[in-house]
């Protein structure tokens, strides 16, 4: 198995972009994935604590 540098270099060459561009894109993607995971956890927690009797109907909110 190669180094991280070699893997990133290979990706950059495959995409036809610079190392800094591919690293930027990978970091942005990683942040988005972590945000999705965190938001999923928040949603799951809120869903578990939701009291159905206090929930509003879709049509009451959106018409």
- Terminal CA distance reads 57 Å
The geometry reads as elongated
Structural class: mainly alpha
Q: Can you count the beta strands? A: 0
Which spans of ≥5 residues are poorly predicted at pLDDT below 50?
Answer: none
* Major sheet summary line: none
Strand-residue proportion: under 5%
* Mean pLDDT level: 94
Tally the helices.
3
Please supply descriptive tags for the structure shown above.
mainly alpha, elongated, 63 residues
Summarize the structure.
This protein is mainly alpha-helical and 63 residues long.
Describe, in plain words, how this protein is organized in 3D.
With 63 residues, the protein is mainly α. It has a domain at 19-48. The chain is 76% helix and 0% strand. The chain contains 3 helices and no strands. The protein has helices at 4-15, 19-49, 58-62. Helix 1 (4-15) packs across helix 2 (19-49).
Layout of helices and strands, plus pairs?
Layout: H1 4-15, H2 19-49, H3 58-62
């Amino acid at each position: 198995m190669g180094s991280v540098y070699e893997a990133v270099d290979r990706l950059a060459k495959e995409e036809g972009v610079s190392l800094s561009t591919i690293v930027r894109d990978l970091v942005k993607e990683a942040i988005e994935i972590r945000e999705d995971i965190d938001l999923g956890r928040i949603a799951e927690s809120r869903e578990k604590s939701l009291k159905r009797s206090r929930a509003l109907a879709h049509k009451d909110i959106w018409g």
